[in-house]
Amino acid sequence: MYAYDEIDRTLVNERVSEFRDQVKRRLSGELTEDEFKILRLQNGVYLQLHAYMFRVAIPYGTLATNQMRALAHVARKYDRGYGHFTTRQNIQFNWIKLAELPDALEDLAKVGIHAMQTSGNNMRNVTSDQWAGVAPGEIEDPRIWSELIRQHTTLHPEFSFLPRKFKIAITASDHDRAAIKIHDIGLRLIKNEKGETGFEVLVGGGLGRTPFIAKTIKHFVHGRDILSYIEAILRVYNQYGRRDNIYKARIKILVHELGIEKFSREVEDEWQHIRNSSLQLDDEVIEDIRSRFTYPAYEKLPHMPDELRQAAADPDFEAWRKNSVAPHKVQGYSIVTISLKPTGGPPGDATAEQMDALADLADKYSFGEIRVGHEQNLALPHVAKRDLPALWKALDKLGLATPNVNLITDIIACPGLDYCSLANARSIPIAQELTRRFANHELANLIGRLHINISGCINACGHHHVGHIGILGVEKNGEEVYQITIGGRADENAALGTLIGPGVKFDEVADVVEDIVEAYLALRERPEELFMDTVKRLGVEPFKERVYATR
Amino acid sequence: MPLVNGGKIVDDSFVKLAVDTPLPEGGDILVPAERFFGEADVLLKRSGKVGVIWPNNRDIAELVPYLGKVAAVALVFPTFRDGRAYSQARLLRERYNYRGELRATGQVLRDQFVFMLRAGFDAFEVKKQADAEAFMQTAKRYSVFYQPTGDGRITALHRRMQLRHSEGVGT
Amino acid sequence: MTSPLEQKKIRIAGPSVVTANRTWDGIVVYRTAAKSWSAELSEAAIVRNSDEAKALLAEAVADDVGAIGPYIAPVQIGDDGKVLPGNLREQIRRTGVTIGQPAQV
Ligand code: HEM
Ligand code: SF4
């Protein structure tokens, strides 16, 4: 875990006092809303339907337990007792009062948490694999680099007023859990022939109105040059990115309009100017950041402890273990995913009580560390296998042991019309209904890995384009209508889904999803053929027929 | 609109000319880029100082041949959301070694001062009187900087190295 | 964002109100006939034609310190004269989320 030093703390405190002054000027009328809007966005404050929303960064998804408790405290003291974990390693509070925000920020700053650049047209929270540092086979802990980039992008004097928001994600595993291909810059950590650390750099991914999968702009950028290379991309984007049309302002459009070759030449030219500057990272500097990430003192533990062997007799435990527990790089330990998708619950929400209790469990069983992933679930990254049965019981008491990770009810959904002022339709109630329809664990298990992603408008915060089943809410004659796509995916084989036909009404969405699933069960060649593979093999037609035959 | 230069509110010696304003006899003038290129010879021979108002969508490299001759470059923030001039400023200072006055114009508010100073601006046409008066105080708001720029302030990464070395010496 | 007043024409299809979020705490408020804001829809000034709507909006927009993002929203007036939100979005703003808040479940 990265430990803030005095320097980081000073910056966060300076930011809080600046924002306090800005809020004061806003409330006194010295600043108009038009002037203030950007300032509040740069501190993560949106306006939703009911109130202000406050988005707090959880850089690369790593939280210490005192930080989790501080989030619980904010939920309790300044909000309505819960928070919403998002798809970009942030947490949102939905009912915050502007006048109290500086106090909330100050409380968070005490434990090294901030909300800088969690919205606005600047570089957003740098995200990474939620299993960073513990996944078997990982090349190197990507959080070292995430942190270097986080620092470099924080309050950047040149790039704080970009044409549009800018998101960077980093992965260091073969399996991409950070969805780097749908980011403005995606970084895949690799080693060159000499064994040196560097990155494959992808650029121009993004969802929204015009979705694009990111393209490789450079196959290898040495680790020491990564800041200058990112700076070169940003400088090209800052100068040439479109500012005349908000829907065309993301870097993906610039890359698309120039073509990746021309764009990469521009970047290359710029890079040659700044490559050998003070942006170059000495080994010493990298080592300094690395040294501030601490790892637990793991014990030497057996691969298969007795506790686990005994618990295997309990089918409920086994159901949970099979989809929530993943291998750890250290023998005798595992990574435990905690589902924030209970049957009938809003995806990604956690109450203050759950957050506090999870912090206690993490102290007891996970060396005080918690992770947040883009699927809106949490994880305990270092659980000794012998503790799994006890942990499971404790999670179950908290309503946090739903055995559905990666199954059909592990749904990603944006806030939609229940909260969001840009929404056309509701997302959460659709998710809730689907979790009820597929609540039967045997059925969900039979279906296997299947991701449903739901967005309440074309902005695609719920990643509907890359859901195996994607659901997009639109509005038609004052009614909520949902367009359904299949065959998308967000991992290393990222692809956009295909529309299966005309939109359907709110009440019909769950039926249609059931039809699609039934079609899949009938069409798959064997039980191991996953939904997305069946769609790949057969295309959308057979699904379309099934869904629209009776409609 | 108050002008802040060297950290203080000062009188602006420059008069801004439009494309077609008649050229005054003497005195310091700021002229739009297109006019500057049209009559550079005439303008530079006058007695007063000459500065250029440079739009934020024109390649700043075009100005390089004249950088030794102009006394001021005014970059434009049509709104404070439009950050192109930050890149132009850094290029002028850090790549083209421009040392004359670098002025921020347009929608310049207190909340951008730190960014602007770091990008190399040293003169500010500030929209609001209160912001201009708060300049010094606002400029000192931050003591920690994560990025290296031409302003030479030490970055957090390097400050850590220094601290570490001095600790190393002590023990 | 362009100010709502810059929209060329303001057309309303039926009775409407001006609504916004109060600046200091963000809660949903409605513009009243007394040139202030109220959290009660029943106290909102009702406008019935474009000119009235435009005037009410202009006056609301001018109070930038009081509330933010004012816009015209449709309402329905029941037989008993009770004012009800005119669409789902306004319904949700008026009565809250349709999903139950987790802290209360
Ligand atoms: C009031 C709440 C929100 C507002 C107003 C909002 C607004 C937006 C907008 C306008 C976009 C499209 C940007 C573009 O394409 O240029 C977007 C994209 C996105 N939002 Fe949100 N959002 C909200 C909540 C959320 C939440 C809760 C999540 C996570 C669950 C989220 C995650 C994302 C992601 C991942 C994208 C990615 C698409 C992309 O990068 O192209 N947002 N959001
Ligand atoms: S996808 Fe649309 S409705 Fe959903 S949170 Fe994003 S902006 Fe709001």
From TrEMBL, chain C:
<dbReference type="InterPro" id="IPR021270">
    <property type="entry name" value="DUF2849"/>
</dbReference>
<protein>
    <recommendedName>
        <fullName>DUF2849 domain-containing protein</fullName>
    </recommendedName>
</protein>
<dbReference type="Pfam" id="PF11011">
    <property type="entry name" value="DUF2849"/>
</dbReference>
